[in-house]
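Quick question, first post here. What does this chain look like in 3D?
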Amino acid sequence: MKKLKWMSLLLLLSTDVFAVPTGFDLLEACEDSLANGFHGTTGMMCVWYVTPCDCQHGKDSAILRVCLPDGKSTESLAREVIEGLKSKSELQIDTAEVSVGKILAPKYPCN
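> Answer (accepted):
Ran it through. Tokens below.
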């Protein structure tokens, strides 16, 4: 019985480890990052998602391609993503990748 409890606890914990961040998670991470200088885990998360690499997006058609211009700052991209997530709150339930694509692809399309 004790072993079953531990197995159940481990299974419950392991499902959280592989959770994909949502647009809401990204909103919180980027707001924190702008206030605190993109440090720590939230800073890395914000930078990772607001600076998408077009090379990865051919695999999943739900993720729109984004081609960022040279010199675009992470801070300005984070602000654009925050603004987009706040103005279109329905994007907050999508995955972070899908949300960012929907926000940035119209502004920075790949030609």
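Residues 2-17 form the longest helix (16 residues).
Residues 25 and 96 are 8 Å apart (CA to CA).
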